[in-house]
Amino acid sequence: STGRLVVIGGGFGGASAARYARIAFPRLDVTLIEPKATFVTCPYGNLLLAGERTLPQITHSYDGLKARGVRVVQDWADGIDATAKTVRLRGGQTVPYDKLILSPGIAIRWNAIEGYNEAAAEALPHAWVPGAGEQTTLLRRQLEALPDGGVVGFAIPPNPFRCPPGPYERISMVASYLKKHKPRAKIIALDAKDAFSKQGLFQDAWNELYPGMIEWVPLNKDGRVTKVDAREKVFETELGTRHKVDVGNVIPPQSAAKIAIDAGLTNETGWVPVNPLTFESVRARDIHVFGDANIGQVMPKSGYIANSTSKVAVAAAAAALEGRPAPGPTVYFNTCYSHVGDEYGISVVGVFRPTETGFAETPNSGGVSPRGPLAQQREQRRLEALYADAWYASITKDAFS
Ligand code: FAD
């Protein structure tokens, strides 16, 4: 073996890293540490809320990785000793590494919104870290139980957070369900921002597909939720306005996952700064961090970026172990598709390059789907919904098969 590569986190970043390492660097010894037996994706969870996907359809096993020779250890990593180069598992075992790959995703900042703690999430689900699917399933059940004429409330965080278009895809998918099953219901979306990803496209679609159903309240109209009452289901804003809802989805402020914080890898922002060429932590040698946990700067916290950056990080780690220079600067692409209705998809594309200290969006690149009335864009929207399905099939294959 040319070295021991230990991967913490079997999500989009970590599973992709383990799979790619076995394919591209077959002499590496690869261990994946992940507490869950299977992985429920956040992508397409919003379609589950609309009743258009089932939990098994968005659940992936680690059997494919095992068949490739990845040693999958089902446990939590509880601590990292960067000097001894070991990972301590909750089960008591210690795992030594030559290079550590860390893609543990996000942690919710409990109580950043007053009253929003783990118990409150049982009444007002976040469904932003799906776990074994409990949170997404809970939100779906609440929507099913909503009376026609009821109110669904969303609390949406400031930047940066996991999946910039995610809350707005969710609003759209919930509206799609309500239009079919509870047409008198209303949605109020309270946002801690004044602008959001693909805003023009989303708002066009809301006006056209769900007229009068969705009220979006930006920061400058007192949109920031600062307090929740989980028992009464009330969202309270900065200026003290109280919004009573029947179903409430709180998408709370976030940080890098706990293991990254405990290992001292995060800075004052709560996210992990890295060398943009190798994804090696600037705070600890031989620990490469990518996915949502890293700052990433202008790159979105997406499964797409977690997958592509994972390969660069693994290539850099393998090169260092084999005494070769790290690969040269890479160009990153991101496409985030969103479903907003039946046969109605939209997307945003970004192109990014590493800079001295981070990443920058390449000028005059990327963009969003064309705007225009549905009558003109029907075929484009239909195709993009199909592209989204194809993207999901291919990325999950590239991570878990
Ligand atoms: P994750 O995929 O969350 O994986 C982290 C893993 O680490 C988890 O399995 C966790 O159990 C494990 N872990 C954490 N701590 C430890 C520990 N101490 N020890 C061992 N294991 C640990 N992205 C897109 O590109 N396209 C989309 O359409 C899209 N839609 C989305 C819709 C929603 C509703 C949401 C919420 C997100 C969406 N995303 C989408 C974003 C995408 O889910 C994330 O960007 C992606 O999951 C990030 O990958 P990651 O590897 O950083 O973290």
Top keywords for this entry?
9 helices; single chain; 26% strand; 23 strands; 401 residues; five-stranded parallel beta sheet; four-stranded parallel beta sheet; alpha/beta; binds flavin-adenine dinucleotide
Structural notes for this entry:
The protein is an alpha/beta fold and 401 residues long. Helices cover 28% and strands 26% of the residues. It contains nine helices and 23 strands. The strands form seven sheets. It has a five-stranded parallel sheet with strand order 5-2-1-9-19, covered by helices on one side. A four-stranded parallel sheet has the order 13-12-11-17, with helices on one face. Strands 20, 21, 22 and 23 form a four-stranded antiparallel sheet that branches. It is globular. The protein starts with a strand and ends with a helix. The model has no long low-confidence stretch (mean pLDDT 97). Bound molecules: flavin-adenine dinucleotide. Flavin-adenine dinucleotide (FAD) is lined by residues 8-14, 33-36, 39, 42-43, 45-46, 76-77, 103-105, 128, 162-163, 166, 170, 257, 259, 291-293, 301-304, 306, 336-337.
